Fold:
Amino acid sequence: MPKPAETSAPDPLAQLIQKNQFVGWLCDVDYEQARVLTRDDWKARARGVPQNSFLLAATVDSHKPGGEVFLLRVTGAAALPASELVAGLKVEKLKQRSAESAGGGAFTDLAAEQFQLGGLQCRVLGQFYLSHGQLRLGCDVESYASAAGLAVYRPDGAALETIVNYVSPERLASSREEARRLGLAGDLPRFPIGTVRFSSTDRLHRGEETGRATFHLNAVDFLARRTAVFGMTRTGKSNTVKQLVSVVQRTSRDFNLKIGQIIYDLNGEYANANQQDRGSLAEVFPADTIRYRMMPTPGFELILNNFFRQIAEGHSTLRGLIEGSKFARSADLEAFLSMDFDAPRKEDCNSDYEFQRQSAMYQIKLAAYQAVLARAGYELPPDFKFAFEVNPGIRNKVNPSVDPANGMTAPQTFEWFQLMRQIQDELITSTGASWVEPDTNVLINLLLQKNDQGGYIPGYRLLQPFKDYHAPNRSTDVCDEIYQHLVNGKIVILDLSVGDPVQRERLSKRIARHVLRSSMATFNAGQHAPHVVIYVEEAHNIIGRHESLTEIWPTIAKEGAKARLAIVYATQEVSSIHPNILANTENIIVSHLNNHHEIGELAKYYDFGDFAGSLIRAQDVGFARIKTLSNPFVIPVQIDRFDPEREKRRGAGGKAH
Ligand SMILES: Nc1ncnc2c1ncn2[C@@H]1O[C@H](COP(=O)(O)OP(=O)(O)O)[C@@H](O)[C@H]1O
Ligand SMILES: [Mg+2]
Structure:
C-alpha cells in the first residue's frame, strides 16, 4: 500500500499529542463524561495530573483524515469497575505490612501493579479535528462509539498553549477583518496576561518558568467587549487591571494600533506609586500617562472645568449641584436652572440682521452670567474681560463714559448692570419694549439680589458654596481634553481618591457620557470610532443591580460595543452586578471567592461550576479562572504580576511610536 504523501506543514492535530505526556487509557466516554484509567508511574512521568487539568484522548492515528482528539477536563477521581475488589486487597496487604514492620518494603508482588491503578473522572469539553488543514474545536462530541482504545495524554508546554489560546477560524477571520479596517497587517494582537495553572499546589505540573504555557487575551475578544474581574479583596483584581493596561499599552505600541485606556481609580492606587507595590502605571509609561485629580497636585491635571470659558458645562455642573442641595426655590432660581447657553445659530435665523441681533443679546446674557459668577467669588481666568455690544442709544443712557465693547472689569460690569436696571423703566419707554431678554433679566436679578418686584432674593449667594468646582486656569473642556488623549492612545488615570464625593460621581458620569457620546457620534457619522478601554474599580457601586439600565454605565456596558468601547469592571461582589450586564459579559476573570452564594451566582455561567470547590479553597493571589469569548470553556491561569521594574526595562527596549 502506498504511503500517504508527506506534507511539509506540520499537522496541528498531531502536534497536540506529546507521547511523553502519556497518562493512561480511556475506559469509557459519553457525550458529557469520560473515565480514564491511569497508573501512578505514568502520572509521575507526565509530572502529575492535577485536578482541573486538561487531558487529550486520541486514537493512535488521530492525525489521519477523520481523526479526532477529545479534550477532557479532570474533575475528580473515578471508581474503576474493580475498585472495591482492589481496595479490599489493599487493605489486606496493609494489615499484613503493619504487622510485619513499620518501615516495611513496598508491595513487590503482582498486586502492586493493580494497586497503582486509578481512575480519573473527566468532563468532555469538546473535540479537536481538522478541517481544510485548520485546527477546529467543536464544543460537543459528535460520536463516541469508536472511543475504545484511545490513549490519554496530559498536554503541556506548546500543546497546552495551543489549547488555551484556541481561536475559531471564524473569529480569526473577524480579527483579520478588524485589523484590516485599522490598517494593520495580519491579525489583531494578543495580550499575554499569565500562565496556565491548575491547582494551588504547583510544585510539579507547572515546571520551570520557561516551560509554562502562556495564556493570551485576544484583542478580538477584548476590544469593544465587556470583561469582569471578580475576587475577594487582595486576591489580585487591581493587579490584573494593571497587567492588562500595561500589556495592552505595550502590545498596541508594538503593533502601531492606538488604544486609549481610561481608569476610574477610586483608591488612587493606579496614579500613585505606593510603597507596597513599588511603582505605578504612571511611572512605567511616563510619556503615555495623564493623571487627573479634582485638586491641584503636581504631576496631575485638574479634572475641573473653567466656568468662565466652558459656559454650558459650568452651568450644568451648577444646575446639578443646586438641584442636589436644599435651597428654597424662588422663581428666579427656577428660571436659572432651566436656562440653556446654546449660542444662536445662523441657520435658525430668518436674516443676517436677526442673527446679529440674537448674537448681541447672547453676548449680554453671557456677560450677565459671568458677572454673577464673579460676584459670587469665582476667580476670573487670567486676562479675562467682560465685553458685549450695546447700541449707542442704550449705551449713552446707561453710562456715556463706558463702552462695554471695549472690555470691563468685574466691578465695572456690576456697576453697569446696576445703572442699567435703575434706568430700565425709562429705557422701556424710549425703546417701546424691554430690550432685555428674559434670561438676561433673571441673571441681572441674581446679580443684584432683587426680583422683578424689587424684593430681596439671595441671588448670586446661592452659587458661592460651589466655587471649588471651577478651575480658572483651564482653557478647554476637560472632557474634550480627556477624549483627545484617548483618541491618541494614551492612558488616562482619573484619581478619584480625593475630592467631594458628590462632585466625583457627577464628573465620573459626565466623562463617561462624553466618551460614549463622542464615539457614538463618530460611529453614526459612518466612521470608525477609536478603540477605548474603560476600567472601573468597585463596580458594584456603579453598575449595581439596582442601577437603572438607562444610566450611563449600564448604557456603556450594553451599547458601547458599537462605539468600540470596551469596559473592564472589577468587584468582589458577583451578585451585586446587574444580571443583564453580567449575562452580556464576554470575558470573566475570577480569583478566590469565599462564599457559596457568590460562587453560585457565577456557576450559572459556563462551566465555572467545575471550579466551585477550587475557587473557595485556593486563596492564592492572582490564581484566576478565565472564560473568554474565544474559549468555549474556563481556563485556570496564574496572572502575571505587574512588575514596574520589568515593564520599565521592556519599555526602554520597545519600539517607538
Ligand atoms: N498575580 C499576582 N502575583 C503576585 N502578586 C500579586 C498578584 N496579584 C496581586 N498580587 C499582590 O497581592 C496584593 C493584592 O493585590 P491587589 O491586586 O491589590 O488585590 P485586589 O485588587 O483584589 O484587592 C498586592 O500587593 C499585589 O502586588
Ligand atoms: Mg483592588
